[in-house]
Amino acid sequence: MTESVDVVLIGGGVMSATLGTLLKELQPDWKIVAFERLGDVALESSNPWNNAGTGHSALCELNYMPDPADPAKAIGINEQFQVSRQLWSSFIDRGILNEASTFINSTPHMTFVRGEKDVAYLKARYETLKKQPLFKGIEYSEDSRVINQWAPLLMQKRTKGEVFAATRVPAGSDVDFGSVTHQLFDYLRSQGAEVRLNHEVKKLKKKSDGTWDIRFRNRVGSGPGRINAKFVFVGAGGWAIKLLQSSGIPEIKGYGVFPIGGQFLKTSDPKLVAQHQAKVYSQAAVGAPPMSVPHLDARKVDGEGSLMFGPFATFSPKFLKTGSWLDIVRQVRLSNLGSMLKVGATNLDLVKYLVSELMKSREKKIDSLREFMPTADGKDWELIQAGQRAQVMKGGKLQFGTEVVSSADGSIAGLLGASPGASTTVSIMLNLIAKCFPEHTAAWEPKLKELIPTYGETLNDKVDLAVATETKTAEKLGLLV
């Protein structure tokens, strides 16, 4: 007899972990099973070395505000990160997450630009953002002495007469989403949920009663199996499109994904780490996707400090770091072929950028680092391979955000896309819950407001609420206000 459960989560990343934990808090009696094809959770995009670990809150990322007079998207990203902070705070109170320092640390967020055009842009951006409550405390300077105090490695041996500027928000953070993922799955296990590692879901089929028949394979043990679920979430990174296509839901028609990989330069030299306690972003190269914005990041993983610089784009046809070389081909359908061909024809700048990145030698990558850090010595840095990002293609356009695709009846949903991804997981999952479980909305709302005090509200248009909320969560998470 086929096993039946309430919820199946496919993929062992922060998205599945967050959704599973929320559902377990909202409906403790539901039976939840998670499948992960690798030997542990958080080994793909949620792994700290597969991403730059920035708590994306638009404090320093210029791609969220291309027009310096229009802060709408930046505010929206920041609002979503505030929701994540509130939920994490509540999870600490409930013992679901360990103390804050195990996954989040105060790290100022900076933007550094060079040249008169970019300096003018950054100043205009600063003038706009300093008026917004969620961006209070943002600082701006063109003074090398001030910027040297903020981030010494940026200023040492800088060319005399060079035009540059920087902004800084002391209240930024560094997040280890791998740690968050592990802790949430540990909690789910303690509450009776199953996390089946080395299990790869192969096929999804909807039954006449509206439930889902899920075929899987144990990659190290007993072979094939099946399970029946009332609701399925596909949080499998780039693998998601393959499974959603296998489900046959019409909502996935027309979608394709384009994989982009990356490398980072990394150092754990204590002398260098001590001189750079910030995340510093700059402008992307012409044609570069937003995920390729260069940044020099202070990281803390498992208690050890390090610096990462990059990313440098790479190309692989795989949708996951551990995916198949045939992934990019196997996604092709009549419904998405035209759109994918149009993307290729209308994104020649991206193609040119990728080719130039692929031709970069290690020394050229060190030269790119020296634009940020003039004193960089190649022997102090190692190249590491980051994760794969599967960018959404739809309607002939390449999209760089995250997008939830769900069936009309809400019985299955999956996540496509990349940045800002993990930092906005909580908001993405709350929207998914509202869309897929409308019959439970009224009953669950009190619990959601208990977990997230400003649930259903915005903060930036309510100064007192914004200040009070930021202060409370900062204290709980051990962050600067």
Automatic annotation (TrEMBL):
The keyword Ion transport does not apply. SUPFAM superfamilies: FAD/NAD(P)-binding domain. Keywords: FAD, Flavoprotein, Oxidoreductase, Tricarboxylic acid cycle. Its EC number is 1.1.5.4. The keyword Flavoprotein applies. It is an enzyme of class 1 (oxidoreductase). Its cofactor is FAD. It catalyses: (S)-malate + a quinone = a quinol + oxaloacetate. Pathway: Carbohydrate metabolism; tricarboxylic acid cycle; oxaloacetate from (S)-malate (quinone route): step 1/1. Gene3D superfamilies: D-Amino Acid Oxidase, subunit A, domain 2 (3.30.9.10), FAD/NAD(P)-binding domain (3.50.50.60). Belongs to the MQO family. This is Probable malate:quinone oxidoreductase. It comes from Microbacterium nanhaiense.
